Amino acid sequence: MNFLDWIVIAAYAATVVSLGIWAGRREKDTDDFFLAGRSMGWIPVSASAVATSLSALTFIGVPGAAYGGSFLYLQLGIGNFLGWYLLSRWFIPKFYELKVTTVYELLGHRFGLTSRTAASVFFIFSRILGSGVRLAGCAIAVSVFFGLEMKTAIILIASFALLYTITGGIKAVIWTDMLQLVLFVVGATATLIVIWNALPGGFSEFLSVGSAAGKFKSFNFAFDLSDGKTFWAGNTFAIFIGLAVGACDQDIAQRMLTCKDSKEAKNAAWAAGIAPAFTSLLFLSVGAALFVYYQTFPDAGITKLVADGRNDYVFPYFIAHHLPNGLRGLLVAGLLAAAMSSLDSALNGLASTAFIDIYKPHWAKERTVSDAEALKFSRILVAIFAVILAATAMIFGRQTSILWFGLQAMGWTYGGLLGLFLLAIFTTKKTSEFGNVFALVTSVAVVLFFTKWLTVGWSWGIVIGTGWTYGVAYIWPTREQAQA
After folding, report:
1. 254: closest CA among 105, 102, 462, 389?
2. 383-388 CB contacts, 8 Å cutoff, 24+ apart
3. Verdict on whether the full-model pTM lies above 0.85
4. What angle do CA 397, 10, 50 make, to 5 degrees?
5. Amino acid 117: pLDDT
6. Of 56-60, 404-408, 416-420, 427-431, where does the model show the most confidence?
7. Which domains does the chain possess?
8. What is the pLDDT of residues 263-302, one digit of tens each?
9. What whole-number distance in Å separates Cα of residue 418 and Cα of residue 430?
């Protein structure tokens, strides 16, 4: 590490912490802490949503996927946009009509407290798994660069995210995410320029060698139910997951609830649906450029990483060994930004759900919780979830491809949530709360049965989970119907 690298990293850290303190200076209650007083515009909200959805899975996993494969991940951008578009049409107007703090309050209005609580608990477990994987993705890079143990890297990253999230709440999350998105993009762009300049044939060599190796293949139109990376399966998955994370995941949906009105929230959703196509292309290009670079300049360290199936380690290795001083520090700051942008929002989303949907209606229903008490307890919850996420990252951090594993994990649980939310939006039929919970919980087993034992492609898991939950909950008889 050069002195200049440390200056860049220190400047990033100081800016993030200062933004957190600045954002939290006027917080008086949980409406400020969780919803920024519903005062945000669509530009910072959409930037924050994009930064969160990209996370370390993009910064590390996408270059790794391109290095060992091709640009097939890019085709998911079509379905992702359609999912966010449907979110803006179906769910955002309803959220603002009901003036919810968490999206699970919608289920409470439609079905009752039991369904709301079950969905909240389901989300908490889902988000702990998903964000734990994201944290592990960034810890991989930090451990490679600094020569740290994975556990040490995870603890350091989680502690830093906790520091400013516990201070500034969702407003700190949104403004720091904007900064982190800029670092995210600038760091990847700078890497591409360095590699192209280093290649003897420059950009032309990147295109010719990459094309010969099939790196730029972006579409697979084969009809194969067992392959989750085809155009049909991948985009079906992307539509469902885009809609699910925007409508059923408090981590992402919370951003949309901070806007001044539903019009601003819709604009934010549209922008958040379009932007990932460009950022995915950028990071896939980094992976392809790294492949061409190491074909031209073989490296024993890279050969060993690839032989061990650790393609996710290639980009961090390049940062550590081949970037010039100063730029290395910028990329490390980008890596930290990748982790922070997903961790900070997860901590706030988990805390808001635990407080609003579980603690208040079940443990504090007999008394009034003061603003000061609520704010203090919410910050304690943020700290608790930081510890839980760190532990989860240590358990799930040793995957062959952190990107595809993260997507698979989302497919296990998000279908159940989406099925219940679609049922709430598109039907008026009275349903059984027990049936709702049964359908939600068993959806995980059904998805695993089809994707693990019947070898249906993992990308169909969220579709199966959605259909199962919607169908079972819809036909389940209410108590009155059962008695009749």
Report:
1. 102
2. 383/162, 383/166, 385/128, 385/346, 385/347, 385/350, 385/351, 385/354, 386/158, 386/159, 386/161, 386/162, 386/343, 386/347, 387/158, 388/128
3. no
4. 55
5. 93
6. 416-420
7. 3-402 (1.20.1730.10)
8. 999 999 999 888 888 988 999 999 999 999 999 999 988 8
9. 18
